[in-house]
Amino acid sequence: MYQPMKPLRHHMSKILKFTQFSIRDLVVAAAPTVLLIVGVCLLAYWLVDPAPPRTVRLGTGQENSAYEDFGKKYAAALVKHGVKVTLVPSAGSSENLRNLKEGKVDIAFVQSGSTNEEAAEREGLSSLGSLFVEPLWLFLREEKGKPPITQLTQLRGKKINYGPKGAGSPRLFRQILELNGVEKGEVERFSLANTPATVELLEGRIDGLVFTSAPEAPLIQMLLQTPGIRLFDFNQAEAYSRKLPFLTHVMLPQGIVDLGRNIPSEDYNLIAPTATLVAREDLHSALVDLFVQAAASIHGGAGWFQQQGQFPSAKYTEIPVDPEAAKYYKSGPPFLQRYMTFWLANFFDRMWVLVVALGALILPLSKVVPPLYVWRIRSRVYRWYGQLRAVEQKVEEAPQATRMQVYEEQLKRLNEIEDLVNQVSIPLSFADGLYGLRSHIQFVRKRILFLMGEASPTAPEAVPV
């Protein structure tokens, strides 16, 4: 019962050779254009808006400092998004600022008051927002039989550790002393790191130490609970905040350290700059988004000196805020990052580069594809005209002596050409060219047969094949 189907299948396979449109030829004709467009788009994708790096260097602070502790939290937050944060320890704010300018770090914690707007713009630095207040802590060793120090002028002749070179506290404390009329050299200055300075204070070899830090720092927590060590009360804190606008007046409430033991036993007035996250202007905008989102998670809660949601903030910083960070503080995280992973959202954010590249290339290059397609189809027919012309030339140039032999050879060659032409697959819209070629083959055949008849008058009349 399947036997009658075979001729039909054979007939259908022949028909399929002649279609209205050739997908294969279109693909081949469009391939160079498509490859060019893809290449240009990829080049634009990587050069115009490169992918964010997988590693970033964060300048932190001294051992056991709040900067070091928060640096670890940022590293843990960003590694969840596939970004490795390398922590670069330093003496503090001033060294971090110098490392930023020299390109040793990409982003760092910097204390407010360390620089100004003009200098930051000149060095290509921008703020990602203020993170928390870090009071100026002045811890003094209590002396038996003597009243506590209540005025900074009483520090004359005392041994005070200002902090190491590169930290933010030495510069700030010098400004505070100058406001009180205490000249340079009237206080014996030490420049130890916070941890060894604490040991020196506890051993009684220095009279006090100064550093700026968030209250979460382990050394702060320890010193606030150490007998014989007293925190200095800046009872003129409001005046300091007016004299130095980058400072704010904050209150350390009674009992905040330990309610059960009532530590501290009284309220303390403190003056506090703010810790700011400062980045180089070449930090990728996607990483800016990540750091600001991490900052909101790490610093957004209530604390000893802040209310819920007060930080991070675009306020309290003298350094211009990065546009991406400002956008976050105004509108929240980018729309796509609310529903997608960081890298997938970043990919779609960068797709605008592809759209621009495609718009610039597709329209002009699309005009090239149709002529290429037509040329490719017609070339299947036109290339046989070269063979046909070669047959005619050999017939015309045939020597008198071997004329019949050449005619017979070229007639045979013509039959081979016709067999091959009959196997050519071509869309129906170009079939006129194929039929024209076959008619021309027939024309050349008739001419050869005519010449063969003239060359052999006794031969029977030639009949076209």
TrEMBL record:
<keyword id="KW-0812">Transmembrane</keyword>
<keyword id="KW-0675">Receptor</keyword>
<keyword id="KW-1133">Transmembrane helix</keyword>
<dbReference type="InterPro" id="IPR011852">
    <property type="entry name" value="TRAP_TAXI"/>
</dbReference>
<feature type="transmembrane region" description="Helical">
    <location>
        <begin position="351"/>
        <end position="375"/>
    </location>
</feature>
<keyword id="KW-0472">Membrane</keyword>
<dbReference type="Pfam" id="PF16868">
    <property type="entry name" value="NMT1_3"/>
</dbReference>
<protein>
    <submittedName>
        <fullName>TRAP transporter solute receptor, TAXI family</fullName>
    </submittedName>
</protein>
<feature type="transmembrane region" description="Helical">
    <location>
        <begin position="21"/>
        <end position="48"/>
    </location>
</feature>
